[in-house]
Amino acid sequence: MMSKPLQLHEDRLLPADPGIRSIARALYAEVAGLPIISPHGHTDPEWFAENQPFGNATELLLHPDHYLFRMLYSQGIALERLGIGQSDADPRESWKLLAENYHLFRGTPSRIWLDWVFAEAFGFEVTLDASTADLYFDTITEKLQQADFRPRALFDRYGLEVLATTESPLDTLEHHAKIRDSDWNGRVITAYRPDPVVDPEFEGFADNLARFGEITGEDTMSWSGYLAAHRNRREFFARSGATSTDHGHPTAATANLSPAEAQSLFDRVKKGGASASDAELFRGQMLTEMAAMSLEDGLVMQIHPGSFRNHNLQLFEQFGRDKGADIPTRTDYVQALKPLLDRFGNNADLSIILFTLDESSYARELAPLAGHYPCLKLGPAWWFHDSPEGMRRFRLMTTETAGFYNTVGFNDDTRAFLSIPARHDVARRIDCGFLAQLVAEHRLEDWEAAELARDLAYNLAKKAYRL
Amino acid sequence: MMSKPLQLHEDRLLPADPGIRSIARALYAEVAGLPIISPHGHTDPEWFAENQPFGNATELLLHPDHYLFRMLYSQGIALERLGIGQSDADPRESWKLLAENYHLFRGTPSRIWLDWVFAEAFGFEVTLDASTADLYFDTITEKLQQADFRPRALFDRYGLEVLATTESPLDTLEHHAKIRDSDWNGRVITAYRPDPVVDPEFEGFADNLARFGEITGEDTMSWSGYLAAHRNRREFFARSGATSTDHGHPTAATANLSPAEAQSLFDRVKKGGASASDAELFRGQMLTEMAAMSLEDGLVMQIHPGSFRNHNLQLFEQFGRDKGADIPTRTDYVQALKPLLDRFGNNADLSIILFTLDESSYARELAPLAGHYPCLKLGPAWWFHDSPEGMRRFRLMTTETAGFYNTVGFNDDTRAFLSIPARHDVARRIDCGFLAQLVAEHRLEDWEAAELARDLAYNLAKKAYRL
Amino acid sequence: MMSKPLQLHEDRLLPADPGIRSIARALYAEVAGLPIISPHGHTDPEWFAENQPFGNATELLLHPDHYLFRMLYSQGIALERLGIGQSDADPRESWKLLAENYHLFRGTPSRIWLDWVFAEAFGFEVTLDASTADLYFDTITEKLQQADFRPRALFDRYGLEVLATTESPLDTLEHHAKIRDSDWNGRVITAYRPDPVVDPEFEGFADNLARFGEITGEDTMSWSGYLAAHRNRREFFARSGATSTDHGHPTAATANLSPAEAQSLFDRVKKGGASASDAELFRGQMLTEMAAMSLEDGLVMQIHPGSFRNHNLQLFEQFGRDKGADIPTRTDYVQALKPLLDRFGNNADLSIILFTLDESSYARELAPLAGHYPCLKLGPAWWFHDSPEGMRRFRLMTTETAGFYNTVGFNDDTRAFLSIPARHDVARRIDCGFLAQLVAEHRLEDWEAAELARDLAYNLAKKAYRL
Predict the structure, then answer these.
(1) Looking at residues A156-185, what average pLDDT do you find?
(2) Is Ubl conjugation set as a keyword in this record (chains A, B, C) (predicted)?
């Protein structure tokens, strides 16, 4: 097998029609170099606090990327062989498995992101396959020892203006403190993700509540103390740079209980072992409580519903969370959000960003909701839909009802650090292609498209996340 | 800020590919000037009965158009400032708010319709923005005083062959009578929309029933008298020109109760305060009763389900119905329509036109149903989906299973009078583009596309609505 | 009326953009002539066992094709006039009804398949319409008497490498035996479709169980005997060439009961008259049992859920099953498959091919499931979605998450024999068009697209079905 040349075409992902492409190319040229606003993601702040070199190709690119190992697993490759879990697999051997099976990723966004990383970040000129696996592993691993491949250098090299991570209220945020106290100017902020102390079905919920009390000095066994602990911790997060909260619930259900009902519910769930319906109701009530606090402290709310987490029971028991076995489910917003919206929906000072894994809700529910309620905006195509076709469908199905200005630009939502610039580049190309089509069909003037291209690539994210 | 030139491009909304566009252009040229059949809408018949001038730009274009004020509201602009509700806002100031925020409508159909009105109806050559707000307001308001901008003149100017409005059974239809008795030849007909006396959850349902009895001279407190009142009123509507009925239910549920069960249900709901399940069952039973009456009197049935009306509680309490806060919901047809279809589904003399706000039902449920049952046809892309991409998705997802001849042409469904020709023009362009693509891919011959273009633009609506 | 020329354009169904088309044309040229793998369908094995001539145009093309008569029926043409059911309609008159109404099929796949059959198989050079109805009927009926239009000759002429039919466990497979024992080399295999003895709501279920016992010599009134009968019969099918089983359930529900619970459930359903919930549970349990047996005997499982069978009650009572009145329903996979997946999901030796009639599940559920679980693959766009746009949506909505290699190539799933080569040709053209677009947008290299085109047209089906 002869490996083939690897080259990123300058027109990649732009529409194929020559007329539309030339419009798209002009739009893209004006936004390609804009700084990156990354307001939602899951990179590890310790990378930037400690600025230690990444270990090797497998640790950098395969282990943190569940998109990669889920696909390999789907074709019968055991996770242990990929070094996932308590595995002592040789990283080079794991890398070879990726290389030999790289054809599985044809047509997927992972392939686009990886090729960008290979060509752009590491300068490869041949494709990854079985014959180049060692070359790749050695080259990447070697470069990672160089100063200009350390986390902070890569952050600066790729023009990240701001990068948000996501932390639990139980986190000390010590890495963020260290970053702020350092002489490096990179802006790495946190986001308040209270699932471990808000979701009664989260592993160790009761223990988490106890720890929440210790950290905040509040009586988290009482409803009022518990709420005070949130206020306390949100303030700490905001002082550490956070401008948003993040809520990863199974559904978008909200509730609007009376204080007495809420207290009684809290008393039922606080010791663990809550019923499924109490757990769902409590999560829903907490979204409304979080909205109330957002009106006080100005943090933007993000709601990420609709994932059936850890669907694969055996895998969860053996390997734990976040191993590529989360599966989207049908998600209702119209009934689910009503309790919260009945209370706060008309308040333009509140900002709630909605995401979905159920594309059937784009045109039917989300665009009509965001095109009416002052407090609602739409997050970008998320997770499995963070892809060229996913982004196109998002624009095609939301724009006509919600417009562009009820959307918030792009989120990468990744723990694979080097894919961040690759992902933002994909989003900019797809959005410019979408705008170019509107111009080509005389539905938008070229000067409007140019304004919009900058808004979608940069301004909207900055404004929506109050950055 | 310098305002930009406004010009409607002759190829707007046609596919961008030069080969497809030239086919589409030829198809469109043959249908662009066909008369307009508008078989379903919500304009005010008083306009045509009295033929008084429209007041000013804001009254003509902003106040009747919930697409416009919902978008402005979504960005935090209070409805009072737009003159909605019991507001004494200066119409010029409301107009300025629209002008300053006109960029919000980029990529939306509202923008397309408005630009058509601005350029085509009022002759503007610069775009609407903050700097031209006064020019627009003054010019429009002034022109509206001219004879050729009165309702009947505009009706004639834009080639409306027939325009249907929608009235409650409680309506006197006096405006329609006045139109018929006048020396003007415009055909403005009504449609029978019985929701106020069919939906136990409609505001004032019990009072409506009483009034229904007074108008018809039937005992509407008995089930048989209630049905007789419908027959009576349907006949009156038909004599006043109606060829259709219209049913705007929350779901598509139908029922097929025995006469005894139906009577007992009626007795439970007739005094108001019906349970949610009784209300739903009664609406469902009434769809089946309406189908039975349609077989007697020949009125075509339209079913418009799936909107969660007045989702925004505070807004409803302050401003009332139809303020842009209706949100689509997931809608089932397969189970829901079965009771009605079990009774009448195989009767080719019955004609039921189905609409949806849930596009996931197009290919999965609606096209298979309409492609089988003789009594079913599909209404066009509706409401939020009455848009270029919405129309494309409708054709893409229904044609392969239902064909073109189980659809009924275009409905504008609007209360914004001047958008009617603009909307029909959009539909004709999009359908011609769709047909052109089929020709370009050699899936249809050009002579077939030419026939179909006329059918979709004119013939199918006329035939389906028995006009 | 003058009939028009009929000609299959060599570029039909390829993308219209000249750049993409030329890439697609090159890809298609390499796969157009590959042998046909038809791993799932419903042709009659007797045709190939007896090799008798097909009767006439109507018997060959109209009677076995519910796509055709459902459309004619939807426009008010009685099934009796088409010769469906106990009708003595003159086949020539039925054919004329098809001819006169051939315009109804514009934009549908039926039209594409039929035109292929007319032009390619029978050499017509004018289109079918009222004026050519007799010419068509006579020519086709005459040719069918020729030796080269007998079933085996057509099988060979169109390059079928393997054709699978579908039989009930109660079938003797005598036709398959006769084919194997003949001197003809065509490979016609069966597939195990146990619905009549697995679905307690199937007509004659209790009688079927009794017959199942007679055929297998097992005590099918006991749970263990019933399972043994399946093992017995699966082995017989496998020896007769079957490589797969097929399960056409209303939903995708699976269950994982304890042996005692399963036995008790079996005892409740075995005599007929099962409750709806017991019937559903039993079907679900049997999917899991079938998976267990597949791990023993290596048969590939196909799950075809989501059709509301015989939705039209009157039609079912008068004409029976499969008369074009099956309607798709919303279908859940995430919850439904979990019991089976909890037990066998991580076993890479098991192969389950999932189909859907609910396209909203492609990107949301099916691609994420198949892109993770080793035992799952995705079947092609099915039934109403076996169409150019249906196939495009399938690739657009599954590829980015599941890739190409978790799909299984094309199935024709038809009882209309001559449409088989037509359908495979459509699939090859659409897939090549899809790949060409990826190449044109620089998301795939041309050498990869060439590999993929062969995989999608031939290799994947052969591998997935273990042929």
Answers:
(1) 97
(2) no
Taking the C-alpha atoms of residue A410 and residue A418, their distance in angstroms, rounded to an integer, is 16
Q: Is C313 on the interface with B (CB under 8 A)?
A: yes
Q: Which residue has the tokens 């305060």?
A: B273
Per-residue confidence band for A163, with pLDDT thresholds at 50, 70 and 90: very high
What is the arithmetic mean of pLDDT over B341-364? Answer: 98
DSSP 8-state class, residue C121: I
Chain B residue with minimum CA distance to A360: B360
pLDDT over 70 (residue A1): no
| pLDDT band at residue A86 under the 50/70/90 scheme | confident
B12: burial class by Cβ within 10 Å (0-12, 13-18, 19+)? middle
Provide, as residue numbers in chain A, all residues whose Cβ is less than 8 Å from the Cβ of B24: none
C1 has a pLDDT exceeding 70:
no
Write down the residue that tokens 């905040």 correspond to.
A216
Mean residue pLDDT across chain A: 97
Query: Pick from A16, A360, A389: which is nearest to C396 by CB?
Result: A389
Structural domains in chain C?
A: 55-148 (1.10.2020.10), 151-464 (3.20.20.140)
Query: Over the stretch C146-156, which tens digit does the pLDDT of each residue have?
Result: 999 999 999 99
Mean predicted lDDT score pLDDT of chain C = 97
- The pLDDT, as a whole number, for residue B389 is 98
Q: Is the pLDDT of residue C2 over 80?
A: no
Q: Cα distance from B30 to chain A (closest Cα, Å)?
A: 20
C338 reaches A (C-beta below 8 A): yes
β-pair partners for C203: none
**How confident is the model over B164-184, as a mean pLDDT?**
97
Chain B residues closer than 8 Å to A444 by CB: 106-107
CA-CA distances (angstroms) from residue A342 to A254, A288, B310, B450? 10, 10, 11, 51
Q: Which of B11, B74, B79 to mutate to test the interface with A (most CBs of A within 10 A)?
A: B74
The beta-carbon neighbor of A437 closest among B16, B105, B312 is: B16
B 180-199: CB under 8 A from C? none
> Which of these, C101, C109, C35, lies nearest to C73 by C-alpha position?
C101
What DSSP designation does B379 have? P
* H or E stretch covering A151: helix A151-157
Those chains having 3 or more beta-carbon pairs within 8 angstroms of chain A are B, C
C67, exposed or middle or buried, with CB in 10 Å at 0-12, 13-18, 19+? buried
Nearest C-alpha of chain C: how many angstroms from A424?
A: 16
Q: Six-digit token pair at A447?
A: 């000067």
Is the pLDDT reported for residue A353 higher than 90? Answer: yes
Looking at the partner chain, which of C314, C329, C359 has a beta carbon nearest the beta carbon of B363?
C359
Is the CB of B13 less than 8 angstroms away from the CB of A348? Answer: no
Convert the pLDDT of each residue in B101-145 to its tens digit.
Answer: 999 999 999 999 999 999 999 999 999 999 999 999 999 999 999
Residue with tokens 């389900």: B305
Cβ within 8 Å, pair C440-A16: yes
Any residues with CB less than 8 A from the CB of A90 and at least 6 apart, and which? Answer: none
Summarised one tens digit per residue, pLDDT across range A9-58 is 999 999 999 999 999 999 999 999 999 999 999 999 999 999 999 999 99
Q: Is C369 at the interface with chain A, CB within 8 A?
A: yes
Phi and psi, residue C394, nearest 5°: -55, -50
Torsions phi, psi of C211, nearest 5?
-60, -35
Query: In 3D, which of B394, B387, B452, B432 has the Cα closest to residue B413?
Result: B387
Whose CA is closest to A200, among A110, A128, A271, A285? Answer: A271
Q: Does A73 touch chain C (CB under 8 A)?
A: yes
- Which chain C residue has the Cα nearest residue A19? C17
Interface size between B and C, measured as CB pairs under 8 A: 125
User: What number is the ipTM of this complex?
Assistant: 0.97
Structure tokens at A219: 């009586």
